[in-house]
Amino acid sequence: MEIGQTCLKKNRGFTFVEILLVLALVLIIFQISNPLLNSATSEWKLELASRDIATLIRKAQITAIRENKIISIRCIESDGEQKIVLYEGPKARPSPYFLPKGIKVKNRANFNLNFLPRGSPSVGLTVRVGNDLNRVKLVVISPVTGRVVVRNE
Asked: For the whole model, what pTM was predicted?
């Protein structure tokens, strides 16, 4: 009976060394995978922001047609944040779109687009949207039709 009781007392749980070993392995795996997760998150933000900008451009075009007015769309920077704003004449419309952290419009100075009441843009434009990893997406607006396309640089 003493042999069986001794075996039960020895195998009651994990030792401190075993727990430390498992924690060390988990930390090593996390350190290896962390840069991959950050890169994937940054790529996802870039894709999302590019598509959101394309949607806002389409919204400006549809608004110009529906209201029979010239609608402008611009990128403005204030306090280190960039935002996309729709304008009706000199008056800004409510609810600007703030770009996610780490995402910037690279050619912000050139991002001034007017949609005429018939829906065509005043000029063709390519908006360069980039992230912290120097990856760039292009939002291309056709000068004649106003068609908006998102593509890789």
From this structure: 0.77
